[in-house]
Amino acid sequence: MWAGDQSSDWDKGDGFPTVIIGGIALRMCGVPFYGHDVGGYTDTTSAPLTLELFIRWSQFGALSPIMQIYSMRNITPWSFGDDGVRLYREFAKLHTQLVPYTYTMAKIANSTGMPIIRHPFLVHPEDPRTSSDSFSYYYGNSFFVAPFYEPGGERAIYFPEGENYIDWFTGELYEGGTSIGYSCDLERMPLFVLEGSIIPMFHPDVDTLAPVSVEIGVEEIVTADLDPDLLVRMYPKSGKVDGFTLYDGARITSYAEGGELDILVRAKRGIDFEVFGEYDVTVNGRRIEVRIANGKTFFTWDGEIEQPYPEDLSIGSPLSSLTLSPASIPSKWLKTLNDASSHNIDVGAVSDSVWGRFSIFKLRLLLPLASRSLNRLRFRWKYCIRDRSPL
Question: How much is the pTM?
């Protein structure tokens, strides 16, 4: 749905703030998709549209399902010189980078009715302070956004209870249930990712999803479709299983504890991982060579898989369990399972198809998962051998 013809100003009656309020409120009515004219459409004041207003509006557009410019005054980034073009490009590229994430949230909206833009009260109704927040919202499952709605680059932000929030630009962590005063220049915006999130993205060199078929006289434009290699940013939460299922059924599941990060990947494409924190990494049971720099861990997944995706994938269930062929299960995992009786673990087997595919095991831990080894054992078994019960 389109926001309307807002005026190009900060007016709370018909200016930029009304676009934020309307977008958040409309999602509560069950409308999943929303777009607005970055910079506003009508010119009802004598004051010219400022660079600050245009970029703050662009930032909100970047974290909206649809980002577009349309103005009766033909306002464009070039209207504000080199700074306007540079700053707008950064947030337009962020919007493009997040297409794999946003497209997945769109599929969830289509199948469940849960909107992409979500009022804080919709996500945390148990927190009474969320009901009065008109200028903050969750963008899908993993982002919390608090756009500037007044000039000056300062605002108060309340983080709803039940989550920890990490600044997308600085990496600073904020606890849920707290309020802060937040300020920044036009290079940044109040954008936070929930701790434990896995964010699939295009690489930063991708400019557009649209094909370029004519010579347009500018530097080379990098295009992409919905099936290129991905960049995945991970924000592990110690002792917690995290997961993300993409629109095409590709899945990433992880468990972090004590400097160890176990990851299970089922994807038909290459993935460059950027993990916040320093970890020794195991992917699908194999130790991976990593590069550590500036408090982050970097490594690449080559996209090789042992078998096709199972047919019963649920896009809206990121923690769905996985199916592997016998050869893909590391021998040390099987040895651990063979020794399971020493840990009071009950292992049962159910035969699979006549094609002799690996039997489906169900593992139940009878002891409290207090030790690191049992936590990791549960993660690897649960998410590497399919549990037929729904999550």
Answer: 0.76
